[in-house]
């Protein structure tokens, strides 16, 4: 079976780390068809559209998409791309690796972030010179869809349950609905949950991240708390993510275009390659995904490493070492 993969490198180091991820995928004997498309600042400057219609269409029909990063136009690119795959959950593992300087080397957890609503649903208004408002959207259906995914996620991995981070003590209606909907689904699936207020979670994760395995959160909380976790594990060059929809998915490093180092060939390819590992697992190639993760892990430990990790290797040298370690 051929898997069509949309490859959208975007701007800056997206152009450097996305080909690295593709070359890792190419080293397996899997029938991939890679189709490349443009998005981001460069194509916007040329054509006026940061996300050309054919790129949107490609992501909406391909089996999976590998995205790099977009610059100033990021919001105009990534939000519609997530919509193209109808992505209702953003999966963000935050894990520290041996050999990488981390504030909390014992960190190993996964955020399952609601990806469609909350305060990011775009309902903002300017009501007067003095007053602007934002409507926070929470539905039972989106909360339950996320919770069902979370239940399957922990069951597949032999885990007992997950933590729900919310702020239902203040946002009683919206986060109250979120918390109750998630609890109802977990109950039906026989999955254990515990709850934590999202502000307290920020403190707990700094003091002892080992308390958490899988954390389910509303959109904004998931965005902020997973970036906090990125700080604990040694920075952005290492964090992959997956935007999962019912029929397709989009995989991207958490980092942006890194304009300070773009074009020099020294970007860390690990986050993009770990995103490719998530893509392999999504398509059912669990063994291959695990192999990629182990290869990245061994190279992080022994080198060669890129400059952000204290090494002197180029993107190509680190990528070649990872492919050799497969
Ligand atoms: P950034 O992630 O691009 O860079 C932050 C810092 O981390 C920089 O010092 C950069 O050199 C370093 N860094 C990031 N990834 C790295 C890697 N793979 N290897 C080595 N060092 C790495 O975030 P920043 O500076 O806030 O944003 C730069 C641009 O990226 C902006 O235009 C922003 O809009 C865009 N952006 C796009 C995203 C996306 O497309 N999903 C996400 C975040 C930012
Ligand atoms: Mg963010």
Automatic annotation (TrEMBL):
Residues 4-322 form the Isopropylmalate dehydrogenase-like domain. It is an enzyme of class 1 (oxidoreductase). Pfam families: Iso_dh (PF00180). Its EC number is 1.1.1.85. InterPro entries: IsoPropMal-DH-like_dom. The keyword Repeat does not apply. One of its GO terms (biological process) is isocitrate metabolic process. Coiled coil: none annotated. Keywords: Oxidoreductase. It comes from the Archaea. One of its GO terms (molecular function) is isocitrate dehydrogenase (NAD+) activity. Belongs to the isocitrate and isopropylmalate dehydrogenases family. This is 3-isopropylmalate dehydrogenase. It comes from Natronosalvus hydrolyticus. The lineage of its organism: Archaea, Methanobacteriati, Methanobacteriota, Stenosarchaea group, Halobacteria. The gene is leuB.
């Amino acid at each position: 079976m051929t898997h069509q993969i949309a490859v959208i490198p975007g701007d800056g180091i997206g152009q450097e780390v996305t080909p690295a991820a593709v070359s890792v995928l190419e080293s397996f004997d899997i029938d991939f068809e890679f189709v490349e498309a443009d998005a981001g600042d460069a194509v916007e400057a040329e054509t006026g559209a940061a996300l050309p219609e054919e790129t949107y269409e490609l992501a909406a029909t391909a089996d999976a998409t590998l995205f790099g990063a977009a610059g100033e136009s990021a919001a105009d690119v990534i939000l519609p791309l997530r919509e193209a795959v109808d992505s209702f959950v953003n999966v963000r593992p935050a894990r520290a690796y041996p050999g990488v300087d981390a504030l909390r080397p014992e960190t190993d957890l996964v955020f399952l972030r609601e990806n469609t609503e909350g305060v990011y649903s775009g309902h903002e208004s300017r009501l007067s010179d003095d007053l602007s408002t934002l409507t926070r959207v929470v539905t039972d259906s989106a909360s339950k869809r996320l919770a069902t995914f979370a239940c399957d996620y922990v069951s597949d991995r032999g885990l007992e349950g997950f933590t729900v981070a919310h702020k239902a003590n203040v946002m009683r209606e919206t986060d109250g609905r979120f918390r109750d909907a998630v609890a109802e689904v977990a109950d039906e699936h026989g999955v254990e949950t515990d709850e934590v207020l999202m502000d307290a979670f920020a403190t707990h994760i700094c003091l002892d991240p080992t308390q958490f395995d899988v954390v389910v959160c509303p959109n904004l909380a998931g965005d902020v708390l997973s970036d906090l976790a990125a700080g604990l594990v040694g920075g952005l060059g290492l964090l992959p993510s997956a935007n999962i929809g019912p029929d397709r998915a989009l995989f991207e490093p958490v980092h942006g275009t890194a304009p300070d180092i773009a074009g020099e060939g020294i970007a860390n390819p690990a986050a993009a390659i770990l995103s490719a590992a998530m893509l392999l697992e999504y398509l059912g190639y669990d063994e291959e995904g695990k192999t990629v993760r182990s290869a990245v892990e061994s190279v992080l430990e022994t080198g060669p490493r890129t400059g952000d990790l204290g090494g002197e290797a180029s993107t190509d040298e680190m990528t070649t070492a990872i492919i050799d370690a497969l």
